[in-house]
Specification:
The protein has 390 residues and is an alpha/beta fold. The chain has 2 domains: 237 residues, Type I PLP-dependent aspartate aminotransferase-like (Major domain) (Aspartate Aminotransferase, domain 2); 135 residues, Aspartate Aminotransferase, domain 1 (Alpha-Beta Complex). It has 13 helices and 12 strands. Strands 2-8-7-6-5-3-4 form a 7-stranded mixed beta sheet, sandwiched between helices. The chain has a 3-stranded antiparallel beta sheet with strand order 9-10-12, covered by helices on one side. It has a two-stranded parallel sheet with strand order 1-11. The protein starts with a strand and ends with a helix. About 1% of the residues have low confidence. The chain binds pyridoxal-5'-phosphate. Pyridoxal-5'-phosphate (PLP) binds next to helix 3.
Amino acid sequence: MLYFDHNASGPLSPAAREAWLEAQERFPANASSLHRPGQRAEAALEAARANLAAQLGGNAAGLVWTSGATEAAGAVFGHLAQEAGAGAEVWVSAVEHPCVFESAVRSFEGRVRRLPVSGGGVLDLGVLQAALSSGRPAAVAVMAASNETGVLQPWEAVQALCRAAGVPFVCDATQWIGRLPAGGLGGCDFVFGSGHKCGGPVGTGFLSVGASPFRLRPLLCGGPQEEGRRAGTQNVAGAVAFAAALADCAVRFDGIPERLEWRDCFEQELCRLLPGVRILGAGEERLWNTVAFLPPAFADCRQRWVVRLDAAGVAASSGSACASGKEKPSHVLEAMGVPPGDADRVLRLSGGWETAWGEWEEVARRIGEIFGRLRVADASKESKTRKKAP
Ligand code: PLP
């Protein structure tokens, strides 16, 4: 199977697997225990924290281990809602992942404002700037890179606008980390990510509260772990493996220009094979690993492209992992102006560092074959309809 669904989840990297197995063997104790095995586990956890903080260009003391990005988003908006004055709004980009949007809605009820994006899926900075000149929300949330299209958001500019306005900035960096250099993200008021998107284990994640002067009100309460910011026994081997996975990605960043070339060549091939195809976010800065596109429509649309691709040995996605299987069109595509009738044809292919150029070529070939079969079926249907016509 050609695996092109890394934005949903990817395999554990060899570096992370090795680190996980070693940590599991060497540090079996509870990191909160006072005996020496406990202290050794704590030291390993803190070394992983320092390692991750260095990669984010942030402060280790502000980094909280979580079970993933969803938990981190729930913690951030729960915290913000308790800190905010009654009636305060929270502003989120229209293309945020559901874990951000739904956490914001749950914590702020009817006080969530969506910030618009362009047809290319990029936040409209002018709208944000104008809004900040007259209003002061409890926070602004803009992701670093889109899980559905790979489009990069101008998070550094948003960070600067928020800082100037004295408004906390929340950045979901789940799809950015491990794919692009993360230095600078640690300076966001709140930034979070998930291990399994970049070669780490599922069930690991982090929330960095940057240089925020306040304590994080915990989502999970109980023990005093993570400086009282997240209760529960810490996942030492998971944290060690997550940090190792990210460090392993970082040594590959020199390969980004080549990967961007592969992505562009693949898209050119798609345009040649599928006349009329629309590449989502074309012309915008995007992740090197993600291609989202809208294939042309055919009369025979009973079977979705993603199912046809699966039968052809390609694992792809029709949108974000959380949206797949749902009939509702993706809110991201809607915000980008893709008509609801077209949205269910959109396909997302997302590779990983191990994905070879030959695999991209092979996927293009298989897509071309499916398209050819659909075109033949369409033409014969049309000629039958013509024959039946009086
Ligand atoms: N944010 C983004 C951009 C994502 O792509 C995802 C998962 O697809 C999440 C958050 C949630 O991550 P997790 O399911 O690991 O908590």
